[in-house]
Amino acid sequence: MSEVKQEFLQRSITAICLSAVVIALVLFSSNLILNTFVFLLSLALFFEWMKVSESSLKKKVIFLLLFTFLIGCIRGIGTLFEPISFITMLGVTIWIVIAYQIFFKRGRLSSNFTFTNFWIGLILISTFCLICFQFVNGSRLFLLIVIFNVAVFDSGAYIIGKNFGKNSFLPELSPNKTIEGLIGGLTSSIVFVTFLCILLEEVSLRASVALMLSIPFALCGDYFFSFLKRKANIKDTGSILPGHGGLLDRVDSHLAAIPMTSFFSLLLYTIGSYF
Question: How far apart, in Å, do the first and last CA atoms of the chain sit?
Fold first, then answer.
């Protein structure tokens, strides 16, 4: 078996196992269990972010405690002080800045974006965690659709890119990503969302547009972490997931796409209310 086929098989087995766990949790677990899982996943993501840095143990412990305290306070007294919107908008703003630098500045990214900058990790992962909490308490089915929309994009881009990719897209950030792979991923996502829009009442036209608008940000998440890993001189952020690397390697696109889907959905709803 060739190395490419072996890698694809390993990635596929891991992806199937992860998909089964995600589907079971999202559709069949209680709110308490699912929210606890989201929090522990986010905590693990932040721990992995800090693990690849060269900062002191004291600083890592302080930021882990800060992350736990922040999420705990928002869950406990968020309705009183309403910090969710503030934290979420900070995260959305950062992703917009990242997207602008990637797509309009020839792949340049600020030197402030590093694994040693725990504040960036704190905001981005907290935003991801809080938006997932909102989906859990709002529409679990839509959360599942958002997750699989990104997975479909990633899979389409990987398969097409590996088999037909020749022209690099932003080689400064990730030389292995190709224009052909990008087209394959976008096409896969559009077909997936269109199919759901036709079959499911829960997926409205507004939701479909929000899902499609979030895909460029899924790409941003992928490129952003490729940039961070190159600056840290590492291939993967971990080795917990066979064929994928670490947790951040697996959910890099989701970290951007899930908050941006929520943002675009809210933005389109607000615009629609004026007509």
Answer: 58
For 11-23, b where at least 16 C-beta lie within 10 A, e where not — what string? Answer: beebbeebeeebe
Tell me the C-alpha distance between 158 and 161, whole Å: 5
Name, in order, each residue with C-beta under 8 angstroms of 26's C-beta and a sequence gap of 6 or more.
Answer: 34, 140, 143, 144, 147
- Crossing angle between the packed helical segments 84-104 and 57-81, to the nearest 10 degrees: 120
- Which structure tokens are listed for 118? 């725990």
Task: Kindly give the confidence (pLDDT) of every residue in the chain, 275 residues in length, as a single tens digit, with 9 standing for 90 and above.
Answer: 555 566 666 667 777 888 888 888 888 889 889 989 999 999 999 999 998 887 888 888 999 898 988 888 776 665 444 545 678 889 999 999 999 998 888 778 888 889 999 999 999 999 999 899 888 888 888 999 999 999 899 888 888 888 887 788 877 777 778 888 889 889 999 999 999 999 888 788 899 999 999 999 999 998 899 889 888 888 888 767 665 678 888 888 999 999 999 999 988 888 877 76
Number of domains in the chain: 1
What are the beta bridge partners of residue 245?
241
Quick check: 223 and 173 in contact, CB under 8 A? yes
DSSP 268: H
Cα atoms in the Cβ-side hemisphere of radius 13 Å centred on 211: 30
pTM value is 0.89
CB-based burial, 92-104: b 16+ in 10 Å, e otherwise: bebbeebbebbee
Residues with Cβ within 8 Å of 44's Cβ and at least 6 positions away in sequence, in order, are: 247
CA distance 196 to 219: 21
In which domain, by residue range, is 45 found? 3-272
* Pair 109, 224: CB distance under 8 Å: yes
